[in-house]
Design goal:
Helix content: 40-55%
Structural class: alpha/beta
Strand content: 15-25%
Largest sheet: 5 strands, mixed
Order of helices and strands: HHEEEHHHEEEHEHEHHH
Number of strands: 8
Distance between the termini: 48 Å
Number of helices: 10
Oligomer: single chain
Shape: elongated
């Protein structure tokens, strides 16, 4: 069975820190997303927990379940549902959401749909169950509803109580058809936090401005000059300077190295990697300048 490749593609490239942080963030929430969508399906079948329907479906406790996340099998508690038959007996009902979560490929598609729905209300439709359980389209809408709740919780968090020192903003690949921009905040302790994300290209200034407008409205500010690491996009840079005019901006070295490597033959890649490794590890402006000069000589 094909592994859950979404988590790998979120990273875009080894060393891309924004992608790695965002990947870890999504991964840490996958279990709660799955539990949420299973609970929604049970509610569709059986009615609200505090006011269950008197139809053919009814709750029947919980049992251990297993899913595959990022190449690892994880355990969770799955709800159980039974159905009354015409013969007066009952039978177990297999939850479509749990079956889908057990398939890495289907889980990937569901999470992508949930993320898309979370940032675009147009992706949401009313949820309705059919007479024989939940249809595939209903399950899809359940995932979208859970995704919208997830993104709303992320975007409603208060940022004013944290001592922020830096921002990392980068465009990452979500799938072959979807890209997104992720904003990572770094606090005074060095901890990285996913603040928001948006679908679109980092070349789109309007999308970048919307992201920055949302986080500043939630209280993001910096008591000192903000340090920002960007991917080199002019749109990102221009949008950032509109909100933080005195920000100190650094070009992401991972992107810079990747762009230079694309213009070199493979026999030079090892030396290029060595120089950039030195550049990332040096301390102080003078030492960094020496490495930059050595890099310039190499590129000539």
């Amino acid at each position: 069975m094909k592994d859950f490749s979404l988590f790998g593609s979120l990273g875009q490239a080894s060393g891309n820190e924004v992608g790695e942080v965002f990947r870890s963030f999504i991964r840490s929430h996958v279990r709660s997303l799955i539990c949420g969508v299973m609970a929604e399906e049970v509610a569709v079948l059986c009615g609200p927990k505090h006011q269950p329907a008197s139809g053919e479906y009814f709750r029947s406790g919980n049992s251990p379940g297993r899913i595959r996340i990022g190449g690892h099998r994880e355990t969770l508690i799955r709800p159980r549902v039974r159905r009354r038959t015409s013969g007066g007996t009952t039978e177990e009902v297999s939850l479509s959401t749990y079956e889908g979560a057990s398939d890495p490929g289907q889980l990937e598609a569901s999470i992508l749909a949930a993320l898309k729905a979370g940032v675009s209300s147009r992706e949401i439709a009313d949820v309705a169950g059919d007479s024989h359980g939940t249809s595939r389209s209903s399950v899809s809408r359940l995932w979208k509803e859970v995704g919208q709740k997830f993104v709303n919780e992320l975007r409603n968090g208060d940022l004013s109580q944290t001592d922020w020192v830096a921002l990392m903003i980068d465009g990452i690949v979500l799938s072959k058809d979807e890209t997104g921009i992720v904003v990572i905040g770094i606090d005074a302790t060095g901890t990285k936090h996913v603040l928001d994300f948006e679908l679109g290209s980092s070349e789109n200034k309007a999308v970048c401005a919307d992201l920055l407008r949302r986080i500043t409205a939630r209280g993001f500010s910096c008591q000192r000059r903000l340090f920002a690491v960007l991917d080199g996009s002019d749109a990102l840079r221009n949008a950032l300077l509109e909100f933080f005019s005195d920000a100190v901006i650094q070009r992401c070295l991972v992107h810079k190295e990747r762009n230079i490597r694309a213009k070199l033959s493979k026999r030079h890649w090892g030396e290029l990697a060595r120089l950039f490794k030195r550049l990332r590890s040096v301390q102080g402006a003078i030492a960094a300048l020496e490495v930059v000069r050595e890099l310039e000589v190499f590129l000539k």
